[in-house]
Write a structure and sequence with these properties.
The protein has 13 helices and 12 strands. It has about 300 residues and is α/β, with parallel strands linked by helices. It has 2 domains: about 1-55, Arc Repressor Mutant, subunit A, CATH 1.10.10; about 65-305, D-Maltodextrin-Binding Protein, domain 2. The strands form 2 sheets. Strands 4, 5, 6, 7, 8, 9, 10, 11 and 12 form a 9-stranded mixed β-sheet that branches. Strands 1-3-2 form a 3-stranded antiparallel β-sheet. A hairpin with a 2-residue loop joins strand 2 (about 35) and strand 3 (about 40-45). Helix 5 (about 80-95) crosses helix 12.
C-alpha cells in the first residue's frame, strides 16, 4: 500500500498496538479513517497529526473517551502467556467486558498510559538499586497519573534453549561463546532491562553477544524462534518452556503487576478481571503451565494520593 495511505494492519504496526485495538478506535471514532472499496484506510499525514494532537490532550479527557467504547478497556505493556489466558477467561465469564492489549514492553506501556492512550499498563520493571519492581519508575514515567499498582502474579524468568540444551547454556557468560545465537527482547521491555542489568554487572560487552540486536516483542516469539532453529537461546517466562517443551534455566523470580489510574481501578471491567484472576477455575488451569505464585494476586501494592 502507498506510503501515504495505510491499512489496519499497517496502522497497528505504526502505532505499536494490536490490530483489534485499531478497530476499537475506529468504532469509537477516535482515529481518522475512511472506507475505500469496503476496506478501512488511514492517511499517514492525518495519523501523524492525530498522534501529536492526542499527545497534547489532557489525561482525563483521553480516559473519558476510551470509556465510551462500551465495556472496553485499552491496555499495553509487557507480555506473558498467563496474561493471554486471563483475558480469554474474562471473555468467557464476562462477555460484556473487553480488554484490548498491545505488546509494547513495560516502559512504553507506562508511557502510553501517561499520555492517555491506554487505561492499563502491564509491567515488570526491575530497579537494580532498590531491587523493587515498577514502583520506583512511577514518578518519572507517570507524572500525569495517580497510579495504583496491583499485583497479578510472580513468575520465574529464565533462559529458554533449544531441545536438550545442546550448547550447554547455564548463564549470561555463555551468551558470548562462539556459535551461540541469542534472541533479544525490544528496548524498554522488562526482560531487556533485566538482561542489560546483568550484562553490566558482569561487565559483558554487548558486542560479544551474537544476536543481541535481534529483537522480538513476546515470550511466544522467543519460543517459536528457538523451535524453528532461528536462535539457540532467549529469555522468557517459564510458561513458554512448559508449553513448547524446551529446557529452562532460571534467572530470577519476578513480580508482574497491573498499573492503572486510581479512577480506572473501580471500573467494572477491572474488577471483573481481578475476580477471574482469583477464580479456582483459572488457577487450576495455569497449574499446568508453570510455577506461578498467586499469593498476592489482586493485592494493591501502591496507591498514590
Amino acid at each position: 500500500m502507498s506510503g501515504e495511505m495505510m491499512n489496519t494492519k499497517e496502522v497497528a504496526q505504526y502505532l505499536g498496538v494490536h490490530e483489534k485495538q485499531v478497530y476499537a478506535l475506529i468504532k469509537s471514532k477516535r482515529i481518522p479513517s475512511t472506507r475505500v472499496t469496503g476496506k478501512w484506510v488511514f492517511p499517514k499525514r492525518l495519523i501523524d497529526e492525530w498522534i501529536e494532537s492526542n499527545a497534547k490532550t489532557g489525561l482525563e479527557k483521553a480516559r473519558e473517551k476510551s470509556r465510551r467504547i462500551g465495556g472496553a478497556l485499552l491496555a499495553s505493556g509487557s507480555n506473558d502467556p498467563i496474561l493471554d489466558m486471563l483475558q480469554t477467561y474474562l471473555r468467557e465469564s464476562h462477555p460484556d467486558f473487553y480488554i484490548f492489549s498491545a505488546n509494547t514492553g513495560s516502559t512504553d506501556g507506562l508511557k502510553a498510559m501517561n499520555m492517555g492512550y491506554t487505561d492499563i499498563a502491564w509491567s515488570h520493571l526491575l530497579d537494580p538499586k532498590s531491587g523493587a519492581y515498577n514502583i520506583p519508575f512511577l514518578d518519572a514515567l507517570l507524572p500525569n497519573v495517580k497510579p495504583v499498582v496491583v499485583n497479578l502474579f510472580d513468575r520465574d524468568l529464565g533462559f529458554v534453549t533449544a531441545p536438550k540444551n545442546p550448547l550447554g547454556i547455564q548463564g549470561f557468560e555463555d551468551l558470548t561463546r562462539k556459535g551461540v545465537r541469542f534472541l533479544n527482547r525490544q528496548k524498554g521491555a522488562g526482560t531487556r532491562v533485566l538482561l542489560d542489568h546483568h550484562l553490566k554487572k558482569l561487565k559483558i560487552p554487548l558486542s560479544k553477544i551474537s544476536g543481541y540486536e535481534k529483537e522480538v516483542y513476546t515470550h511466544f516469539e522467543v519460543g517459536l524462534s528457538i523451535l524453528s532453529k532461528e536462535a539457540d537461546v532467549g529469555i522468557a517466562a517459564i510458561a513458554v518452556s512448559k508449553l513448547f517443551g524446551l529446557p529452562f534455566i532460571p534467572i530470577t523470580r519476578e513480580r508482574f503487576d497491573m498499573v492503572l489510574d486510581k479512577a480506572t481501578f473501580f471500573d467494572k471491567g477491572v474488577q471483573a478481571f481481578i475476580e477471574v484472576l482469583n477464580s479456582p477455575a483459572f488457577r487450576k488451569r495455569v497449574e499446568k503451565v508453570g510455577n506461578y505464585d498467586f499469593s498476592n494476586s489482586g493485592k494493591i501494592l501502591y496507591s498514590k494520593n
